[in-house]
Amino acid sequence: MVFIARQEPFDCEHCGEHIEPLINGSYRNHCPKCLWSKHVDRNGPGDRRSECLSLMKPTGVDYRKKKGWMIVHLCTKCGKEIPNITACDDDLSVLK
Length: 96
Description:
By secondary structure, the chain is mainly beta.
């Protein structure tokens, strides 16, 4: 799996918030306000090859020894589960 770095602004399809890229060198793939994501990658981060393109609901958090805290996203259409690294400005309180 190859990581393809993409720093792109986007409008959240769940809450409508306009999201700018992180300025600290990290890559954002979910809305920091509602934590929802979109199923755009198929084989690895940044490949943008998914045909599903459905919204991904944040279902919880998990801690990974090498990556730290991760938001677990579940695709609302195909059911694929994808963990994503948390960003410094994520509002994790929405998971309560």
